Amino acid sequence: MNSLTRRCVSIISSQQRKLLIINTSQIKSETYGQRHWWSKGSNNHHFHHLRSAQERRFHSTINQTQRQQQDARTNLGILNSSTSSPVAVNMGSANCKEYSTTNSKGVESSGAKQQDGTYQSTSDSDMSEYTNAVEVCNIDDLQENEMKKFNFDENTQVLVIKQEGQITAIGNKCTHYGAPLHTGALGLGRVRCPWHGACFNTRTGDIEDFPGLDSLPCFMVRVENDGKVKLRAKRSDLEKNKRLKNMVKRDKNNKHSIVVIGGGPAAAVCVETLRQEGFSGRIVMLCREPCLPYDRIKLSKVLDLPIAKLEYRDSDFYAEYGIETMLGVEATKVDTTAKRVHCSNGTEYKYDQLFIATGLNARRPNLPGVDLKNVFTVRTHEDAKAISAALTPETNLVCVGGSFIAMEMAAALVSKVKTVTLIFSGDYPFALFGEAVGQLFFNLYREKGIIMKNHSQLTELYGNSEGAVNEVELTNGSKLSCDVVVLGTGSTFTTNFLEQSGIHVNRDGSINTDMHLMTNIVDVYAGGDIANAPILAAANQRGCVGHIQLAKYHGRVAALNMTGTIEDLRAVPFFFSMVFGKGIRYAGYGMFSDVLIKGDLEAFKFVVYYLDDHGNVISVLSIGHDPVVAQFAELISQGKRLHRSHIENGDNHLEWTRMLQEKKARVPCDC
C-alpha cells in the first residue's frame, strides 16, 4: 500500500461549514503498473482496482463524503433536477434529450422512437420546440474515433462524432470566435477548438474549458436499421448556434451569500457557474471598473470598440438571474473573522463564501517624465479609449516592451500612424518562445515598417510646454521624438487590500491556493491572474498564469467547489495571439532547455516543441499548423505525457496525436 494523502474538503452544513479530512489512497494498478487517482463518476467518486479490505473502507469513506456533499448542496439551496422549486438545473443528457438505443448494426445513438416511429422524450419539454428529423449521413461515413461535419440545413453545419460505438451530434461552430470544430482536436468524449482551446462535451455540447462562455447546440440522434443517421435540433439553439446552460434564479428565502471580488473573466464565469450549479442564494460581484465584465484581450488589438460590444453579458442578463453587479466599486478590506468585505463606496457585504479574482494592475516604471500626458498603459477599456483619442495619422508612436501588449499594439497601429518604434531590452521580442521564433518576428516587424530598438530601455521622458510627451531617452543616450508612448512594461497583482485579512499573500502579491483554489482560509477562494495555483502541465507545481482561458477556468472550478462538488484543477494553459495575420497558438507551461522545430519557419507554417532536461515536451507552439497545439493541450489534460522520442520516431512528427483516443488512467497528482 502506498502512503496515504490527505485531502481537505470544505463541507457545508445548515449550521456551519466544517473541515472534513479525507484519507484517500493512491493505489498501484496491477494492470497498468502505474498509479491511478480517484475519478469522478456521474453520481459518486470511486477507486479503480480496489484490492484490500482497507482500500474498500477508503471507498466507503468517499461514498460517505459524496452523500455529505449532496447534503451540503441541499442546504445551500442547490437542488437535483428532479426537484421543482426553485427552478432546477437540467443539464447534460437531459438538456439534449439523449436516449441510448442500439440498431441492428450494434451502434448506439442518442434518441429513441416509439413503435409508431415518432420520437419519444422522457422530459417535460414540448417536442414542438424541435425541428423535424433530418437525415445527415450514414453510420458507415464515420470510422471509430472520427468526427465529421455535415449539413443539417442550408445555414447550419453539425459535427457528428463516433466514439465507443456511439453516434453523437453537436454544433460545429465554436461559441467563442466561430472556429470550425471539425478541424479541432477530438479527445475522449470532448472536442477542443483549434484556434483558442475551448472544449465541449461531445455528448451534451456543454462547455468544459474556455475561453468561450456558451455551450453548443446538442442534437437528438437516431440511427435507423439501414444505417441512416437522423437528427433533430431545438429551434432556439439552432437560431443562435449556441446554448446557455440552464440557470436558477435568486430565491430570497435562501440566505446563503457568496461575494465575488473582481469584474474580469474569472468573476464572470464564477457567478454564471454558481447559478448553473443550482445555487439560488445571494451573489454579489464587485467590479472595480464602471462596466460589466468584458473581453479585455481585444483592447491591444482594436482600440475603439464600444464597451457594449466587448461585454460578455448585458445588465439584463445579470438582473434576470439575480446577480448583483456593483460597478465602479472596489474592495478595500476583507475581514475573514467576521466574514465581511468593506468597499470603496462605504458599503459592507457579509459573505458565507468569498472568491477573489482582482487581476492585475499595469506597471509604470519609476522614470522621470513617466506621468506626462500621452504616456499610457493598456489595461482597461478607458485606457484603450484614451490611446485611440490621442492618435492621428501624423503621430510618432513609441511602444515599450517585447512581450504581447507592446507587440500587439505596434502591429495594430503601424498602419494608422506616421511611425512606430518598438523598444525592448532583449536580443529579440517574444523571448518566451525562444530565439528562432523571436528572431522571426523581429524580421517580420522590420519588414512591416516598425523601427526595432533591441538592447534598449527608457531612461527618461521629456515633455513640451503643454505637459505632453515629445521625446524619450534610451540607455545608450540617444533620443527619439514622439507624440504618444504606450508602456507594455509588466504588471502587479491587485491584492494590497488583503493586508491584515489573514489570507496569506506572497511577497510578489500572488495568493497560494490548493487544487480546489481554496486559500489558507476556509471558505475563501482565489483565481485568475492573482492565483499561484497548481498547474497540471507542470506536474501540479504552483504558478501564476495571466491569461483569459485559465482565468475563466478558475472561475468555474471555484464555483463548483463552493457549491459542494469536489473539482480538481486540470486545465492546460492555452495562449493565443494574432499579429499581421499570423495566428500564434501556444499551450503548456515551464522553462525549456531545448527546442525541436518542425516545418517551415520562413513560410510561417511550423510547430515548435519545447523540451525540459529529461526530453519531456512541456509546451508546444504553432503557426499555420492547426490543430496541433489543441491536440497537445488535450493530451496533457488527459494526464498523458509527450516525449522527444514520440516526435523523432519516424518521418511524421505528429504520430503522437493517435494517443488522444487511447484509454489510459490519469497520472496521479499531489499538491
Topology:
Layout: E1 5-12, E2 17-24, E3 27-28, E4 35-36, E5 39-40, E6 45-46, H1 53-75, H2 92-96, E7 100-102, E8 108-110, E9 134-138, E10 146-153, E11 156-163, E12 166-171, E13 185-186, E14 190-192, E15 199-201, E16 207-209, E17 220-223, E18 228-232, H3 235-240, E19 257-261, H4 265-276, E20 282-287, H5 307-310, H6 315-320, E21 323-327, E22 331-335, E23 340-343, E24 348-350, E25 353-356, E26 360-362, E27 375-377, H7 381-390, E28 396-400, H8 404-413, E29 419-423, H9 435-447, E30 451-453, E31 458-463, E32 469-474, E33 479-481, E34 484-487, E35 491-493, E36 511-512, E37 524-526, E38 531-535, E39 541-543, H10 548-562, E40 574-579, E41 582-588, E42 594-600, E43 605-611, E44 617-623, H11 628-637, H12 644-648
Parallel strand pairs: 8-12, 19-20, 19-25, 20-21, 25-37, 27-34, 28-29, 28-34, 29-30, 36-38
Antiparallel strand pairs: 1-2, 3-4, 5-6, 7-8, 9-18, 10-11, 11-12, 13-14, 14-15, 15-16, 17-18, 22-23, 23-24, 26-35, 31-32, 32-33, 38-39, 40-41, 41-44, 42-43, 43-44
Helix pairs in contact: 4-10
